[in-house]
Design goal:
By secondary structure, this protein is an all-alpha fold. Helix content is 52%, strand content 0%. It is built from one helix and no strands. It has one helix at 17-48. The longest helix has 32 residues, at 17-48. It starts with 16 loop residues before the first helix and ends in a 13-residue tail after the last helix. 0% of the residues are buried.
């Protein structure tokens, strides 16, 4: 028994176009918020204790 090939117009996810757009919008907004939060966290840690400052590098003499 062979299965019928899926219709090309039918998405594999089972989401409608509107649902897929809503999911994509939420995903992009979530990623943007995560990136913003990570950038702020890195800036705060850098202001507390710089990890690449010249004074924190060991001298190789």
């Amino acid at each position: 028994m062979t299965e019928e090939p899926q219709d090309i117009d039918e998405p594999l996810s089972g989401l409608s176009d509107d649902e897929a757009r809503a999911f994509h919008t939420a995903l992009i907004r979530g990623f943007g918020l995560f990136t913003l939060f990570a950038a702020i966290a890195h800036a705060l840690v850098w202001s507390w204790q710089p990890w690449l400052a010249a004074t924190s590098l060991p001298l190789l003499v």
